[in-house]
Amino acid sequence: MVEQLQRYGVISSKKVVEVMETIDRALFVPDGTPAYVDSPMAIGYNATISAPHMHATCLQLLEENLQPGMHALDVGSGTGYLTACFATMVGPQGRAIGVEHIPELVASSIKNIEKSAAASLLKGGSLSVHAGDGREGWPEHAPYDAIHVGAAAPEIPQPLIDQLKPGGRMVIPVGKIFQDLQVVDKNLDGSVSIRSETAVRYVPLTSRDAQLKGY
Ligand code: SAH
């Protein structure tokens, strides 16, 4: 699968190839779900694990901000796949935090990570996943070099901008039906530059009640 993403030109970074080969997606999808097909898959609670090409795209956009020792926040961490990738890239001296508002997904993501190559980072404490409303970020380990948001926000939540380090980068899908993957760079003077990378389709970043309606 990773080879195919390289062949199609989705992945050009060696580090992203390495991390996606290290963290096995099969450990993160529900039993019976095909792991290596390039599409999002349902994980329950009206949530999905993002498609491999989206994981690759986000890792690549954040690569410079996921160097050893850096701090990364994964909002809407779902299965924990990207949180595990971030933790692997920032290493034991860094910090990778997942925030997810469905407690059952927090619990299953921790189980997934325990089976993966990132297990020792979880045990060592440089990787953790928390239940909470990710629109508030996770102030405890702010500021972050990298923030990833795995669900589409109607607008960029201010706490996430506040928790971005100068020189830091956030990747966030923004919009309702039509969504853009936005790349938010906080400049060293504290100002913010925003550009759109590509059109995307994510589940909404919302309240738990709104997400579980009809589930
Ligand atoms: N990157 C994850 C994506 C999961 S889908 C993966 O590939 O596994 C998006 C996730 O965002 C869902 O698990 C959903 O429950 C969560 N989510 C939506 N709104 C949220 C909020 N306000 N706070 C925290 N998590 C939220």
From TrEMBL:
This protein is called what? Protein-L-isoaspartate O-methyltransferase
SUPFAM superfamilies attached here?
S-adenosyl-L-methionine-dependent methyltransferases (SSF53335)
Provenance organism: Gossypium arboreum
- Lineage of the species this protein comes from: Eukaryota, Viridiplantae, Streptophyta, Embryophyta, Tracheophyta
Enzyme Commission code: 2.1.1.77
Spell out the family assignment given in the record's similarity comment.
Belongs to the methyltransferase superfamily. L-isoaspartyl/D-aspartyl protein methyltransferase family.
EC class of the enzyme, as a word: transferase
Q: Which PANTHER family match?
A: PROTEIN-L-ISOASPARTATE O-METHYLTRANSFERASE (PTHR11579), PROTEIN-L-ISOASPARTATE O-METHYLTRANSFERASE 1 (PTHR11579:SF28)
Show the catalytic activity.
[protein]-L-isoaspartate + S-adenosyl-L-methionine = [protein]-L-isoaspartate alpha-methyl ester + S-adenosyl-L-homocysteine
What keywords does the record list, in alphabetical order? Methyltransferase, S-adenosyl-L-methionine, Transferase
